[in-house]
């Protein structure tokens, strides 16, 4: 397997897991502060964005990410909306990855949906945190996600149409692969539309995120989902400040019809809340695509943009008590 470990095996040692994540995230925040050069700037962890989010459209992408978990027969029988028809479905057994392509010849659009981890208990990313240079995209990527994306891209590229708009989506590890797929498509001058991911872990570093900043990336997360905060950074490259970094805009689904929008350092600092509380089963429950769909339903037909409250306690962050 490219990317998973069983969280249940860690449940019995919850305190150890908490300490591990606390140390990892603490180191990440130190590097963040070094990069930004200003604690005061970093503490402004809320960004206001103009415009409205189309939650009905976001929900449609979430439904496709959910459909990706069906069996092949289930996907082939699925009644896709908006004149989309199934063009291709494939499983890559050696990588434990599957995906499908749907096409709308009226609107001239195609959507690639990649399945996430099939077992919710294996949602936390694994061992292979090493960032590796990908020659085609020209950036450093999570090796496991990169291998999966390249395998899919090789198979699906002949089926993609240069004069169509291509969107990608996926949940969890599927979202990570969907994002890297869009990067490959962008390099080869395909017409990229939206990249909408749900509970997606990080895939690249600051330089990689910056290179693909022009892409229309919307990362949907729930406030308590741990997976989007991982991997924190690559310890091997700490001296180069080459840490994992999210690309695109982060859409945080909050209670009822409220939501927040974050980017860059503001998004990174969401991790600090997990350094001050134990990691438990609730984090996995908040990663499920079914919860994402339920929370999106509450944002339709109207939703309210609110500031994201991120309390950065530097004393607790570094393991001390405030006096």
Quickly list its features.
two-stranded antiparallel ribbon, Rossmann fold, alpha/beta, 33% helix, 21% strand
Task: Provide a quick synopsis of the model.
The protein is 33% helix and 21% strand.
Describe this entry's structure for a reader.
The protein is an alpha/beta fold and 323 residues long. It has helices at 8-11, 14-36, 39-42, 55-67, 72-77, 143-156, 173-187, 206-211, 264-268, 281-285, 289-297, 314-317; strands spanning 85-92, 97-104, 109-114, 131-134, 139-142, 165-171, 191-198, 204-205, 216-222, 244-245, 249-253, 258-262, 304-305. The protein has a single domain (15-29, 52-317), classed as Alpha/Beta hydrolase fold, catalytic domain (Rossmann fold). The strands form 3 sheets. The chain has a 9-stranded mixed beta sheet with strand order 1-2-3-6-7-9-11-12-13, sandwiched between helices. α6 (143-156) crosses α7 (173-187). The termini are far apart.
């Amino acid at each position: 397997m490219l990317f998973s470990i069983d969280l249940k095996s860690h449940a019995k040692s919850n305190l150890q897991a908490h300490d591990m994540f606390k140390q990892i995230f603490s180191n990440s925040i130190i590097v963040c502060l070094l990069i930004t050069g200003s604690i005061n700037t970093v503490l402004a962890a809320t960004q206001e964005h103009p415009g409205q989010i189309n939650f009905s459209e976001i929900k449609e992408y979430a439904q496709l990410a959910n459909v990706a978990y069906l069996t092949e027969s289930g996907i082939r029988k699925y009644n896709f909306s908006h004149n989309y028809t199934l063009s291709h479905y494939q499983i890559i057994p050696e990588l434990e990855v599957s995906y499908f392509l749907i096409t709308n010849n009226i609107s001239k659009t195609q959507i690639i949906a990649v399945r996430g981890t099939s077992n919710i208990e294996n949602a936390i990313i694994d061992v292979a945190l090493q960032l590796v240079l990908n020659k085609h995209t020209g950036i450093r990527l999570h090796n496991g996600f990169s291998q999966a994306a390249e395998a899919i891209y090789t198979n699906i590229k002949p089926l993609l149409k240069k004069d169509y708009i291509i969107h990608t989506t996926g949940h969890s590890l599927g979202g990570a692969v969907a994002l890297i797929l869009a990067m490959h498509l962008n390099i080869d001058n395909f017409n990229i539309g939206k990249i909408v991911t749900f509970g997606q872990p990080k895939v690249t570093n600051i330089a990689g995120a910056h290179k693909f900043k022009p892409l229309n990336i919307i990362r949907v997360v729930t406030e308590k989902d741990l997976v989007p905060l991982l991997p924190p950074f690559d310890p091997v490259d700490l001296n180069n400040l080459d840490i994992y970094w999210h690309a695109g805009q982060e859409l945080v689904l909050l209670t009822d019809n409220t939501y927040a929008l974050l980017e860059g350092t503001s998004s990174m600092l969401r991790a600090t809340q997990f350094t001050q509380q134990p990691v438990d089963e609730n984090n996995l429950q908040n990663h499920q695509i079914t919860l994402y769909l339920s929370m999106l339903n509450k944002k339709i037909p109207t939703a309210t943009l609110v500031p994201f409250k991120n309390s950065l306690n530097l004393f607790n962050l570094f393991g001390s008590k405030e006096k």
